[in-house]
From TrEMBL:
Record InterPro entries: Glutathione_S-Trfase_N (IPR004045), Thioredoxin-like_sf (IPR036249)
Identification of the protein by name: Glutaredoxin
Positions of the GST N-terminal domain: 1-81
Superkingdom of the source species: Bacteria
Signal peptide per UniProt: none
The organism of origin for this protein: Rubrobacter marinus
């Protein structure tokens, strides 16, 4: 399962959400607004509050940085690749 820790107003999060949607992937969004439970989980996973942050549990991958996430999605999920 793909999980995206993100903020609705963040343009970098928006970029990743758009690519996930374009690829037709199933994913779960976790809003990390200050003081939220998801914000606490994000800090435990990544050591920071930086968004977007992708967790691909199936592949055991956790990563930040929108460009890197989009590249990862393209490499592993675009064009019928798995």
């Amino acid at each position: 399962m793909l999980e995206l820790y993100q903020k609705e107003s963040c343009p970098y999060s928006r970029k990743v959400r758009a690519r996930l949607s374009e690829l037709g992937l199933s994913w779960v969004a976790h809003s990390t607004e200050e003081g939220s439970r998801s914000s606490e989980v994000l800090e435990k996973l990544s050591g920071s509050h930086q968004v977007p942050f992708l967790v691909d549990a199936e592949r055991g991958v956790m990563m930040a940085e929108s460009d890197a996430i989009v590249e990862y999605l393209n490499e592993h999920y675009a064009s019928g690749r798995s």
